[in-house]
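ugh ok fine here u go
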Amino acid sequence: MLPSGVEDLSGYPLHLIVAAWGLRHGYVLTTVIVSRAFLISQAQARVVLRYIRHEEQKHISSEQVPLKSGGHACSKGLRVLSVNLADITLQKREEGLQKVTVRKPPQTRLSPGGDGRESERQLRQWMVSRRPGEVVPDALFSTDAPY
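structure:
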């Protein structure tokens, strides 16, 4: 979910969207502000801000700003000075989208003979490739298991 004011950038990588959002609204970006606005964890927000500051100087100009808030004495924010989206090609945007696409579990074929070892192998294969919270497909439950 994107915050208001950056809906037009939905195809771009997250770090470019965050930088454009900060620039458009005039915010000094912190991990707390980014995590709340983009509904991501503070650890993810920290990674995005670090990437903007240290890795993406080709498209984003930014400066580190000391903060005098109730936080740490060494708290710093990031002020985005400019974002250049003009030379981002459609192919590059699609590459960024491919990095965050949902990974599907591999397709497995169930043996019709009810081989306990084969169904156990398939269940194990699914377990190592599943996403957190994903429900086990009914086809992987074996009723002839020895346990």
